[in-house]
Amino acid sequence: MMDNQYNYYNPNENTNYQSQNQNGAGQFHGQDPQGGPQKKPGKKTPKWIKAACLGLVFGLVAGASFQAVNVVGDRIFGSGEKSSGSLKQTETSGDAKLTTASGSTVSSDIADISEKAMPSIVSITNMSVEEVQNFFGGIQEQQSESVGSGIIIGQNDSELLIATNNHVVEGNDTLTVTFIDEESVEANVKGTDAAQDLAVVAVNLKDIKDSTMDQIAVATMGDSDKLKVGEPAIAIGNALGYGQSVTTGIISAKDRTMEGHEGNLLQTDAAINPGNSGGALLNANGEVIGINTAKVAADSVEGMGYAIPISDASDTINQLMNQETRTKVSAEEQGYIGIRSQADVSTDLAEMYNMPTGVYVSEVVDGGAAQKAGIEKGSIITAINGTSVNSMSALQEQLQYYRVGDKVTLTVAVPGRGGEYESSDVEVTLGKSFE
Question: Is 225 a catalytic residue?
Fold first, then answer.
């Protein structure tokens, strides 16, 4: 019997789960399903699922050179002419909302569907610096690079908005988006949701060339709730970091579950390869029905990939794309909550003990921000400023954008008299580190 292993891959860790890897209201618009994109503008999962975002790590450790595929090459980061143009789109008012196609005669021309969808798909490169132990036991910094994909979902007055997976952008020092014309620009995180593995990133319109604006397009969202098993499925993404590629198959199953992911997933036999994370799963009309996120990777398994259903993700994406675009603050300026956590409440633990997923507060630091706000030991932090967090690392990822003295709203669950947890929002003024 094969001994299966299951773990999320973190490019900064040596695990068996290979990662394959805000201001202004955005407008989320679609395309004519016949005319193409608008131009110019529960069951446990086997323990051998691999995340779809491939981590390509390179650096120098103890004199040994680690080589990796250079997926960025000599791409230009945000240089060239500045653009004041915009994607053509239907005018709306208020916050961003998903635009869904009204349905049409299904086309089976994969080449035509792919050609029309490609302008709305981007490649995302995540550059980070990690501390690693070298051969002699010392600690040194090593540069890490991982790649994934994204979907253009709209724009606001100053930004182009792109949906992707949280695991594609987490831990970044620099994010780079590459469009269909191979032009690359830097991007910033607009919002993330670790529990659903969703994120939205923003690119300043002024950083995008006019020629690029002429070639890119906004994707149209389909309705994943109406999918039937056996329908065609087309996956587009930055496979292996080589650039956009297309694979085809069918919807193999609906309502699948996976450890560590909140919500149900679509299963497809369209190949989901390293680097496809955050890319689009399309139906035969060229509409986005899912965001590719993971695959089963084992010698005895073929054709089992997973995508987040777009209908399930739409509310979260709408909320994330209207958040304030954030930039990281320096370590010296960063604010702290003042808690210690020795365990995360995972999905399995939450189901077993009827607890919410989140960060279990093992200790409240005396004189810290949490204590001053009335947070007590045994509480579970489930969100910060409306963004869900399912682990201490996810919470720390969010705190990198806030300074000492900033006020944040934490959603905190505490056990009630009947043993059931009750949630409330607590405003916390971040303080300095006590470490």
Answer: no
